[in-house]
Every structure is written in C-alpha cells, then in structure tokens.
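The records we work with from here on pair a chain with its fold. Each token is a code from a learned vocabulary of local backbone shapes. A record is reproduced here so that you can trace the correspondence yourselves:

_____
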Amino acid sequence: MHALQHDYEQKNQQNNNVRPFGLRDKFGYLFGDFGNDFFFILAASYLMVFYTDIFHISAGAVGVLFMIARVWDAFADVLWGRFIDTRKTTKMGKFRPWIFRMSFPLVIMGVLMFVKIPGMSDGFYLAWAFVTYILWGTLYATVNIPYGSMASVMTSDPVERTSLSAWRSLGATMAGLIINVGGPLLLFVNNEPSESRFLMTAILFGILAIACYMACVALTTERITAPEREPQKGDFKKTVQGLGKNKPLLWILVASLVFMVTTLLIGSVNVYLFKDYFGNTTALSVLGFVQTAVVFVAMPMINPLVKRFGKKEVGSTGLALAAIAYLLLFFLPNVNETIFIILSGVGLFASYGLFNLIIWAFVTDVIDYHELLTGLREDGTVYSIYSFARKIGQAIAGGVSAFAIGAVGYDATKAAQSEATLDGMYSLATLVPGVLFAIAFVALVFFYPLTKQRTLKLAEDLSEKREENN
C-alpha cells in the first residue's frame, strides 16, 4: 500500500527532476500561513474595536460590513479557484506564481484598512471601511486559494500531508503569538485603542508578511502534475455532480464552518471581555501566549496520534474536550481572569491543538476523494469550495459578533458598561462557544465518513486509478 501511495508522486519527481519532499517544504508551507495570518488574525481580533472605537462606526454597521464582505469573499474564492484550475502549469508550478504576484497588492490593502485620514466625516470613514475591507478580502483570495491548493500537489502521502497541515497551523500559531500576545501591548494605551499604534503595527506586519510570502515561494516545490487536458463539454456538470456526491467534503464543510464561527467569535468577544468585564487587557496577552503555547505542546503529538487513531478520531476528540471546557467556564461561579485563562487554555489545546492542526489534511483527503469520484484533478476548485464555507463562517462570525456585542448593550461612548452588558459579554465568550463546539463534534463524529481505514483505502484506490490512466 505504501508503494502504491508513492508511485504516482515518484514518477512525477523523476519526470520533472525535482528533489523529494522534506523539511524544506514544511518550513516553506509554514511561512505561507505565517504571512497570511499577520493581517487575518489582526483583522479578526482587533478590526472591530478599531472601527467602533477609532472610526466610531456603530457595532451594527460593522456587523453589516463584515457579513457583506465575507459573503462576497466566499463567491470570489470559488471564482478564483475555477480560474486557477484553468491556468497551465509553469516552471514554477501552478500555484506558487500567484502567491508571488498577488502578495504585494494584498499587503498594501491590508495596511490601508488601518489608515484614518483626519478631519473627515463619519460617512467617509464608513465608506473607507467598506471599500478597503472588501478589497482586502478579495485580494486575500488571490493568495490564499493557490496557497491552500498547493498542499495537494506537494506530496501524495497521507501522513506527509498531515505534517503539512500541522506545519501550516504552526505558521498561523506563530503569527497568532505575535498578534495575540503583542497586540494588546502594541495597540492599546491605558486600555484604550491607539490610532497611531494601529497604523504602525499594520505597516510592521505588512513588511513581515511580504518576507514570509517570498520564503513560501522560494522553499516549496510542486511535485504532482496532472496531465494537461483541454476542457471538455460536460466537465463543469461533472464537477458539480462530484461536489454534490462528495460526502466527506459536505461534512468537513459543516464542521469547519461551525469551528470558524466559534473561534472568530471567541477572538472578537474576548477583546471586549478583557477590556470591560475583567478590566485587564494585559491579561489578554497572557491568553494569547497560552493559545500559542498549547499548539506547540500539541504539535509533536499530532503525527503519532493521527498515525495511530486517524484524523477524524483525533479531531472529534478535540472538539468534544473544547465544548466541555467552555461550558465549564459558563457554569462555574466567580470566575476570575486566572481561572478563565486556565480553562480557556484547555479548550484552546483541544480545539486548536487537536482539531485545527489537522484541518488542512482533511481538505487534501477531500480533494483526492473528488478526483476518485470524477476523474478530474481540480485542486483549486475543491479548495475554493472549502474556503467558500470558511468565508461564510467568517461572515456569520463577524456579523454575529458585532450584532451580539451591540445586542448586549455595549456602548463605546460610555466610561463603564452596565452589569447586564458585562454578563451578556461573558455568556458570549463561554456558553455560546461551548454549544457550537458540541455541534461541530456531532457533525464530525457521526457524519464525516473518512475514518482512518477508509482514508488509507482512498489513497490506495486513487493510486491504482492513476496507474490505469497513465
């Protein structure tokens, strides 16, 4: 079975005279999400408070913006994925050239999101927020879709793909360490967001993001090249039918969407929770450090756990533990920031360490399953469908977060929030994530079909089918 899994890839390597998959590829792939998440995490965690407290846009208007932008991004992802699949493979590969070309305009637009031109009207700031945020999200697709699709052509081995997923998540975690630990210290002065500090931080992160994207392009190698074929009549119909029959895709979409909504909700609400409920934004840095530390703890455990138990089995366990941790936070009395950080750490270890570290390996399996169903290798299209669901999750999370903060009575003009508002914030940060993690667990454990044994069989069947077609 192991030989069958590697046959197709080895032939590609021999034909293209490329080096074998190794540590260099893992580091290169790490740098891709390291670069992505400098702005993604910064925007997910702090852009809402920038808009409400610096642009003085109402929480409801921010919610509308986030929902409109993410829904548009979801469709942009699919369009870009189809576009990428119609491009011919170059000497650099099919996906790496697009990361190189599009990273520069993406970073420039990321910086512009945090620019406040002084002396303008409230309407101007609202329009500026809409234009820059939507353009940034559109440009993000032009880099992230080829980056995510690239994993399926770097190696065909399921265990190596799991390691790529883990290294990608490690890159995101490293960006998270810088932003979640450094963010509260860099962006706030006396528990209040600073306009000038937001801009300087965005410029710094832009420079770091470009360096990371260039490292990703330089260090990674695309090895699996599907035979070039002219589009045939009926291909799109076959693609749509294959997507509809792809049960692993449908259920990993559900689990990932719920997970995305939950983690973004936590990130957005925690800023307000520590600023107003606990009155200690410095403690938010401690939580950011814990979030990073637990991923580093989980990192060496992932490959052995997946090799022994399987991706579905490890991921569902993580979601169950996360649900328990957040529900405990809600029901325990008199929780201070220390207890909150400790139990949140358990939830973060379970969700980010045991589920999110392997999420991208689920996606490569789903891409393979699509090829087995349809005979079409459409990495960009399938990945963009997955990204579509994530963007819908971001739209829901961004909108729900802003609406929920507004619904519990948050008012940026008040020096102190009411007791009812503070209690509402706490429920948003604990009870809601606990319930959502439980829903994601049910979707994965009861409906996602690719167990460890079925994933190994998939790799074997696909290798045999490729052999027959060559």
Remarks:
- Residues 102 and 142 are 6 Å apart (CA to CA).
